[in-house]
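Notebook entry, cofactor series.
This is the third protein in the set we're modelling with a bound small molecule. For this one the ligand is zinc ion. I'm keeping the input format identical across the series so the outputs can be compared line by line later. Sequence and SMILES below, as received.
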Amino acid sequence: MSRAVDLFFLFSTEKNFVREKDFVLNLLENLGFSIFERGYLKIPSNAFSPSRKQFNAGLILSYLSQLKKSEVALGITKEDIYFGDLNFVFGLASPTSLLALVSLLRLDPVFYGFPQDEVLYFSRIEKEITHEIGHVFGLLHCNNPLCVMSFSNSVFDVDRKTKDFCQTCLKNFRKKSV
Ligand SMILES: [Zn+2]
Ligand SMILES: [Zn+2]
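Returned structure with ligand:
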């Protein structure tokens, strides 16, 4: 039995996900999901903070909760998102509502002035989506720096960890996700 996920591409200005779409679909399949593509959706303007020039990840999650039809909903965006006091977040998840959001913006080497590097970019996307899906199923941050559930404050942290759950997190993930 596989779990179902609603997949949304959320945009405000940047709505081109052509490079990333198939990769995300494959990844979700590999994580054991059957996928319902829910298309491209404009992020409600009330989620935008004019002073921060960023979107409030919590408000986007509550928007997703209204649209969710499957067990889990995942939103992918290229807008900059924040939560609480953090300058930015790569993603946010709610284990109680089974929702996750990942921003690709700061995972792209181009954002930091580096040349396009698809291998690096996609490896970061894999880690951050896996990380947020782990949170959806109740996994907490892990102290093992190689584990995909270790906390990432910067892309350096993302690049340091692997795309895999450590043994303990994997056991918990399997227990909770089937
Ligand atoms: Zn986390
Ligand atoms: Zn772990």
